[in-house]
Structure formats: structure tokens, C-alpha cells
TrEMBL record:
UniProt-listed PANTHER family: FERRICHROME IRON RECEPTOR-RELATED, FERRICHROME OUTER MEMBRANE TRANSPORTER_PHAGE RECEPTOR
Family as reported in the entry's similarity comment: Belongs to the TonB-dependent receptor family.
UniProt name for this protein: Iron complex outermembrane recepter protein
Keywords: Cell outer membrane, Ion transport, Iron, Iron transport, Membrane, Signal, TonB box, Transmembrane, Transmembrane beta strand, Transport
Length: 818
């Protein structure tokens, strides 16, 4: 099956399609004839283009014959438009005039890769984002990029969602917005539920796979997502949109842009509301957000203030569904009931539900959290060669999740036993809330120099995090000595994170570009207090990392190049690694040696990229498959492990109006030696013995050996695009033992998307979008966890929990632009 899928996806790369033309040329500074590196060159009618390289050269392939308006723009220069005629391969050269007021975008060159950076990356444009953006979270908008696997707790892409790249979990994926770190400082993950509809304020996303270039915030150990928000539009505009779909999913948003006012000011804003009942029972989401920016431009300076906020209330669905329930295994479900001490109500819920089973029944079993972000950006052009970007940021986050607990021990909450007559009560039903209240603030900068054959960036950041964790009992059947909002644990965390880096791109010869990048990162992470299980927290960990990267790109022929790079990344453990570590152990920091070797070629009909990667780890923290009591993944160090694979991505023009974007990843993801640790509690659950089993050459959990994506698009008329999209994800093991009884089965899912934009009197444009997910109603799961224990030598428990995704479902959107 894997081979058939691979052949079906890759074979058309070799097909020859109807010849189109190549438009190329150079862009220079009109004042001194120096090359204009990084200028954007776009064919307006096709909405397609490229950026100039360090020699000022650009090339746009697959251009049909016809008349076009070519638009050339660059920070610090006056935008130029010129009508050109294409009836063969054409060369058009341009000169740009410097401008005192052309700084419309927040430009963060320091953390992004360019075509001269020898690393592996994918750029996702605003146009591509808008086609897929009907209300689902950001990970689902990136599902068809190479090596990506996405998942949704609620089963339909709204609420708590996640993304893995090359098998690396979200704590390994560095996320920045305009160069500002987004990852939570303690868990190191990104919670997209706190940024609903953020894609509607996004102009561009770059996904770097592997270590990538130096960035700010959490170490990129599997990938990085660099998000840029919208820049200034010179013309005023407004847009309103509404989406509706399966599971009563609704999105309402409105945006405005003032355009450039008095040649100096510009403002943009967005309001969004998203609601969904979810595919899983009771897995509802109620999300709202806003985005507001204001910019001042004068001479060679721009100052931009951005604030955005997200608030979410989601009904918890992070428990997952027992595999026995998914398989309608009556005996297996009875074992789950017995092993977990279900009440009669809980047992009836399990036995009488289906794939949409949700363990939680309490009506306010909800997660309630909000984040307010503030960014202040300065862009300063000192000359045609020197540019400075500096940013200040502050994020305030606060919220809680509430849950009902059945028959918990009073002692677990610091409460005394209750004496009623001769009866001693040691446990109670209760409702608790667990709170986070945190502040994150800091400064980022990058100083950029570019001239002739050299480009250099000196950048870095200093960030501080202050986090308060605490829990409250807001109701108890037996309150004992507690008051309302009895605080039963509290801990404080503080984290300082400093990094500085220097990157240099040198055009050594006409064909050879060499690259170097060195980063120093220092972390001081402290925690003190009492955790939710009444354990004392007291740690003060310091880390200093040196992360070098170097590589080269060689141009074999026009539009054909090869590249190679080697990078070293280091990463500290996260909070749960430290506090959930097995007794007597302490998690170690991880080191990754990353080799990337690639080939890129663009012809008149095919754009092709093939790359080989080796990610060799020392002390990698891998998922055990188990989770803690709040659904967080538990990890452990393994001394030696690696990920090795080949990624292929192609953009093919099959016919005049038929296009195909396809990608695939074949990989091996192995742990050389893994020790599984589970516990034997004895027949009476009064013992605590370790059971250790050694494994060799096992698969890393949640790391499929084959991932493939396809988007086949037909554009019969202007403004209409019909797309058939496919995604294949191979088997994923739930732990690191390669046990066939503990895995997520491979799945192959197909979607249909229709995008139609047209003009209508009274509107600038009307857009209708339809997305039908899982058109063949495939029953599949995209995530899960497992755990096990012994209750005496003769009784072994192994339970798998999976996250089923929705069958056939749809989203329909309408937007009106004024």
C-alpha cells in the first residue's frame, strides 16, 4: 500500500506539460546601480512572482503568453509597475528609486531563510492561507505542507489542535510572530486555541524543517514556524466574512484597513468569533479574538504597534477514546471500567456511546484561558545597505480549567479527614480549578547589512517569564477545614532566556554561496512551591548552549542548485520533564546534529525540490506514550536516537489549467536502545516495584515512516479553483517499543475545496469557499497515548486511548470586500 501511494503521488513529476515561458531579469538601485537584493517581483494578473537573489536577479516560470503588469517593490524604495508583453522567454531589467516612505511591513530578516540559505523550508503565501482559511486552527491550514501531521482533540480542527513536523511534537517547533517568541516558556508548546482566526491577520508563514536558522525563543528541534502579520496597504479596504459548517461550526469576522493616511499613518483591525459543538461529544469551543495595528512612517523609519488577543472556552476532550470503545470490544470496555473504577454513570456513558465518546460529563468541565499580546516594532533604514529592526513585546496570560472529581482523597488537597459520628470520611466529590497566571516580556533585534556579494545579520533577544501555578477547590461535598476557593497548591516559576546570533551569507563566486550562523543561548529557569500532587518543587537550572550552523549553495545551472548544511541545536527540558521525572532522576538537556542536503530545480512546467536529512540526537527527550493528569505528554531521555529521511516536493503544471502540488517523506526514526519502565503495584495495590524492559532499534513514537500530501487544482475560469486534496500518514507507534498492539493505524484522507472569487456591483470582491473534509468518510485516528502497569505478576494492564477524527464534514464561507 505504501509503495502504491508513493508511486501514485510521485510518477507525474516526470511528465512533460505544455510549454510556458520564463520571465527573468535584474533589479538595481537607480541611485548607485547596486543590486537590489530581496526585491519582490510579481506578475499582477497571475498573482505570482519571486524575490531577487544577492545578484539582484529574479526568475518567474510557467508564464503563459500575454500582456501583464509587473510590480516591483522593496522596503526603502518606490514601488514600480510596468506593463510587459510575454510571447517567449523574456528578460526585463528594472531600476528602483529610493523612497523616504516605503517601510510598510514589519521586516524581520534575522529569523527567516531566503533562497540563498542552505536549509530546508517552505513558504506559505497569504493567497494560499486564504484558500484554506474557513475557521479551522492554524495547524490545519498547514496540513498539506511537507512532513506535517495535524490532529484535533475535538475531531474537526477547532479547539485544541496540534501539529508535528518530521515526527517532532509541538514542544520542538519554534513559533514566532514578527520575530517575537510565541511558545510557552515552560511547556515550550504553542496553544493555537489561544489565537483563534489569527490566520486572517497573517501575510506569510515560513516553515523551516530541522534546526533551521537561528531564531528567538524556544529551541527549534524539529521545525520553526515564522509568521508575519499583515503589512500596510496603501488603499483603504474593509471585509466581512461568515462561515458555517458541520457540528454547528460558525465563524464571524470583520476587518478594516485605512490605507496610508497623510502619507504617514496606517491602521488595521479585525474582530473574530468562532463557535463549534465539535465532533466529539460535548467538545464545544467558544473562541473570540481581535487584532489591531497602527503604524507611523516617516523618512527611513517606521514604527508599528500591534496588539492582538484571544479568549477561549472549550469543553475538555483531552482524555481520548479507549481503543476498546472504537473497536466495539465489549469485554475490553468492561476491563476499562473495572481498571479505572468507573461509576455507574461513567460506565453507561462508555458502553452507550460510539466513536464520539467523551469521558467528561460534568456540565462545566471547561478550559478558560486568555492571552493579550502587545508588540512595538521599529524599522530603520540607515542607508541602502544597513537596516535595523527592534521589537519590544509583552504577553499577559491568565486562566483556569475546571473539573469535577469523584471520590478524591481529602489529603490530596491538604484537607483533614471528616468525622461524622463514628464514621471517618477520607474522600469526597469536589470541583476544582487549576490556574495559570503569567507574564512574558522582552526585546528582540536584528541589524542587517547587505551589499554586493555579502549579507550579514546580527540579532538576538532577551526575554523574561514569570508564571504562577495554583489550584482551588470551589466546591466539595465534604469541605472539611477548607473554605470556598481553598488553595491547595501554589508554585512560582521564573525563566530568563537570552540569545545572540550572527549570520553571514557570502556570494563567494558566481555560482557558490556560503553561509555561516553562530548562536549563543543562555537560560536560567527556577521553580519553587508545591505542585498539584502536593510534591515540593524546588529547582534552579542554568543552561548555556552554543549552536553553530554552516553550509553552502551551488548553482549547477540557471534555476538549478544544490545545497548542504550542518547545524547543531541544544534544548533544555520543559517544566513537566522536570517535575514528572521518575524519582531519583533528572532530565538532561538534548543535543541535535542536523545534516540537510538538497536539490532544487525550476523549469517551465515543474518546480522540484528533493532533500535528504539526518537528525542525530544525544539524550533526546522522547514521548513515552503516557500522559500526566492534565493530558500533558510524559517524556524521557534516550542516549542515542535519530531521524533520517528523504523529502520530495513538486509543483507541476500538468496542462493549461491543471496544477499539482505534491510532497512526500520517507523516513526512519529510531532509538538505538530504550528502557521501558512501568510499575507493579501488587495484587492488593499496596506495592510499588519497578519493571524494566530493554529494547533495541525501536521506532520513535508518533513518527510515521511515510507521509504524503497532494493538491490537484483545476482553474477553469478566472476566479474559480477546484481542488482535490489527499493526505496519507503511515503507522504511528504510541510508545517506543514498536509493539504492534500499541499504535495508530495508517490513514488516507481526501478533501475537496472550491474557491470562487468574483466582482459584484457595490463590492471590490465577493469570495465563496467550500471545504468538504474526508469526502470518503474514512474512520481514522490522528493522535493517542498508552499506559500500562502490573497488579501482581499474573495481571498486566495495557490501555490505548486514541483521538478519532470526524468523518465527512464541511465548511462554507462567504466574504465581502469593500
Amino acid at each position: 500500500m505504501k509503495k502504491l501511494v508513493w508511486i501514485a503521488l510521485m510518477l507525474p513529476i516526470a511528465l512533460a506539460a505544455k510549454a510556458q515561458y520564463v520571465v527573468k531579469g535584474t533589479v538595481r538601485d537607480a541611485s548607485d546601480n547596486s543590486v537590489a537584493y530581496g526585491a519582490s517581483v510579481v506578475l499582477k494578473e497571475l498573482n505570482r512572482g519571486n524575490s531577487t537573489n544577492t545578484q539582484g536577479e529574479y526568475s518567474i516560470s510557467n508564464v503563459p503568453a500575454g500582456d501583464y503588469t509587473i510590480v516591483i517593490s522593496m522596503i526603502g524604495y518606490i514601488t514600480k509597475e510596468q506593463v510587459v508583453k510575454v510571447d517567449g522567454n523574456e528578460t526585463f531589467n528594472f531600476n528602483l528609486n529610493p523612497s523616504e516612505r516605503s517601510l510598510g511591513d514589519v521586516v524581520v530578516t534575522g529569523t527567516r531563510a531566503s533562497e540563498n540559505t542552505p536549509t530546508t523550508y517552505t513558504n506559505v503565501s497569504k493567497e494560499e492561507i486564504e484558500k484554506q482559511n474557513l475557521g479551522q486552527d492554524m495547524p490545519f491550514l498547514l496540513n498539506f505542507t511537507p512532513s506535517v501531521v495535524v490532529t484535533s482533540d475535538a475531531g474537526a480542527g477547532v479547539g485544541y489542535t496540534g501539529i508535528r513536523v518530521r515526527g517532532s511534537d509541538p514542544t520542538r517547533i519554534n513559533v514566532t510572530i514578527n520575530g517575537i517568541p510565541v511558545n510557552d516558556s515552560e511547556s515550550q508548546g504553542t496553544f493555537w486555541v489561544n489565537m483563534p482566526d489569527f490566520a486572517s491577520s497573517t501575510s506569510d508563514i515560513q516553515i523551516q524543517r530541522g534546526v533551521g536558522t537561528s531564531t528567538n525563543g524556544a529551541g527549534a528541534f524539529g521545525a520553526s514556524l515564522n509568521i508575519l502579520t499583515n503589512g500596510v496597504s496603501r488603499e483603504p479596504s474593509a471585509k466581512v466574512g461568515v462561515s458555517y459548517g458541520s457540528f454547528n461550526t460558525q465563524r464571524y469576522n470583520a476587518t478594516f484597513n485605512t490605507g496610508l493616511l497623510n502619507d504617514h499613518f496606517a491602521f488595521e483591525g479585525r474582530l473574530s468569533k468562532i463557535m463549534s459543538d465539535g465532533y466529539i461529544d460535548r467538545a464545544s469551543s467558544d473562541l473570540q479574538s481581535y487584532y489591531l495595528s497602527g503604524e507611523y512612517l516617516n523618512n527611513n523609519t517606521s514604527i508599528k504597534f500591534i496588539t492582538f488577543s484571544g479568549e477561549e472556552k472549550t469543553y475538555q476532550s483531552w482524555w481520548g477514546t479507549p481503543q476498546a470503545r472504537l473497536e466495539n470490544d465489549e469485554a475490553g470496555m468492561q476491563e476499562v471500567i473495572a481498571n479505572n473504577g468507573y461509576t455507574q454513570e461513567q460506565a453507561d456513558n462508555l458502553l452507550n456511546s460510539g466513536r464520539t465518546f467523551n469521558y467528561y460529563l460534568y456540565d462545566n468541565q471547561t478550559d478558560n484561558y486568555g492571552q493579550d499580546h502587545y508588540q512595538l516594532h521599529l524599522n530603520q533604514n540607515f542607508s541602502a545597505n544597513w537596516n535595523l529592526h527592534a521589537g519590544l513585546h509583552y504577553t499577559k496570560g491568565a486562566g483556569y480549567y475546571e473539573e469535577f472529581r469523584n471520590d478524591d482523597d481529602l489529603a490530596d488537597y491538604g484537607l483533614n479527614d471528616v468525622q461524622i459520628g463514628s464514621e471517618t470520611i477520607t474522600s469526597t466529590d469536589l470541583i476544582r480549578r487549576r490556574w495559570l497566571d503569567n507574564d512574558f516580556y522582552g526585546v528582540t533585534y536584528d541589524l542587517h547589512y547587505s551589499k554586493s556579494n555579502i549579507e550579514a545579520t546580527l540579532g538576538g533577544a532577551y526575554n523574561e517569564y514569570d508564571g504562577l501555578h495554583y489550584g482551588e477547590v470551589i466546591w466539595a461535598e465534604y469541605a472539611s477545614n477548607g473554605d470556598i476557593r481553598h488553595r491547595y497548591y501554589e508554585s512560582q516559576s521564573d525563566k530568563s532566556d537570552f540569545n545572540t546570533y550572527l549570520k553571514v551569507n557570502l556570494q563567494a563566486t558566481d555560482k557558490l554561496n556560503v553561509y555561516g550562523d553562530v548562536q549563543i543561548r543562555a537560560i536560567d529557569y527556577r521553580g519553587l512551591g508545591v505542585d498539584n500532587d502536593q510534591r515540593v518543587i524546588d529547582f534552579d537550572n542554568q543552561y548555556t548552549f552554543f549552536n553553530p550552523k554552516f553550509g553552502a549553495i551551488y548553482e549547477l545551472a540557471q534555476n538549478t542548485s544544490v545545497y548542504a548544511s550542518f547545524a547543531i541545536g541544544n534544548k533544555e527540558p520543559n517544566r513537566s520533564d522536570i517535575i514528572d521525572a521518575a524519582p531519583g532522576t533528572e532530565p538532561k538537556h538534548e543535543t541535535l546534529n542536523n545534516l540537510e542536503v538538497g536539490f532544487r530545480k525550476v523549469t517551465e512546467n515543474v518546480g522540484l525540490e528533493v532533500n535528504y536529512y539526518l537528525m542525530d540526537y544525544k539524550n533526546q527527550l522522547v514521548l513515552t506514550g503516557d500522559v500526566n493528569d492534565v493530558g500533558g505528554s510524559i517524556r524521557t531521555n534516550v542516549p542515542d536516537s535519530y531521524r533520517m529521511g528523504v523529502e520530495v516536493a513538486a509543483n507541476i503544471k500538468l496542462a493549461k489549467k491543471l496544477y499539482w502540488n505534491v510532497n512526500g517523506t520517507l523516513s526512519r526514526n529510531k532509538i538505538k536502545a530504550f528502557e521501558e519502565l512501568i510499575f507493579d503495584y501488587g495484587p492488593a495495590f499496596d506495592e510499588y516495584n519497578e519493571v524494566r524492559t530493554e529494547f533495541e532499534d525501536t521506532d520513535i513514537s508518533f513518527s510515521p515512516s511515510l507521509i504524503a500530501g497532494s493538491q490537484l487544482s483545476y482553474r477553469p475560469t478566472d476566479g474559480l479553483e477546484l481542488s482535490f486534496m489527499s493526505k496519507y500518514v503511515g503507522d504511528q507507534y504510541l510508545d517506543n517499543t514498536s509493539n504492534e498492539g500499541r499504535k495508530i493505524d495508517a490513514f488516507f484522507v481526501n478533501d475537496i475545496r472550491i474557491n470562487y472569487g468574483f466582482d459584484m456591483k457595490g463590492f471590490k470582491q465577493v469570495n465563496l469557499n467550500l471545504l468538504v473534509n474526508n469526502v470518503f468518510n474514512t474512520m481514522y485516528e490522528s493522535n493517542g497515548y498508552t499506559f500500562g502497569y502490573f497488579a501482581g505478576a499474573s495481571y498486566e494492564v495495557r490501555e490505548n486511548y486514541l483521538y478519532p477524527q470526524a468523518g465527512t464534514n464541511f465548511l462554507l464561507s462567504l466574504s465581502l470586500a469593500f
